[in-house]
Amino acid sequence: xxxxxxxxxxxxxxxxxxxxxxxxxxxxxxxxxxxxxxxxxxxxxxxxxxxxxxxxxxxxxxxxxxxxxxxxxxxxxxxxxxxxxxxxxxxxxxxxxxxxxxxxxxxxxxxxxxxxxxxxxxxxxxxxxxxxxxxxxxxx
Length: 140
Fold this sequence. Notes:
This protein is mainly beta and 140 residues long. Helix content is 4%, strand content 34%. The protein contains one helix and twelve strands, in the order αββββββββββββ. Strands 1-2-12-11 form a four-stranded antiparallel beta sheet, with no helix packed on it. The longest helix has 6 residues, at 10-15.
């Protein structure tokens, strides 16, 4: 497999600044009883294949990355690189992979398996269920 890398500036990599945005509509998601529910009417970034959002803060117990792949499947990852735990992940456009935003460029396949870099293991993934315009991720 030919690994592709995100085009990132030196300071973006050193400071771990993610490229993936947070939702523009803060009322477009909720977390309760171990489930993150996203209103896709308000999460317009997840409507087009290749789109992604990062969810963090509020009462969410951990950071989450949601990607809408070119295969039109939603995938959800614990947004925490297994190499350096505080670094976030970003999707690599057109590849079906996600990559750590740091200098090491640890890269994971669509299932969360480490395919490049020093990460010691896979990144956690979450089950995703789509019902109408509601996307539900089971975190616990």
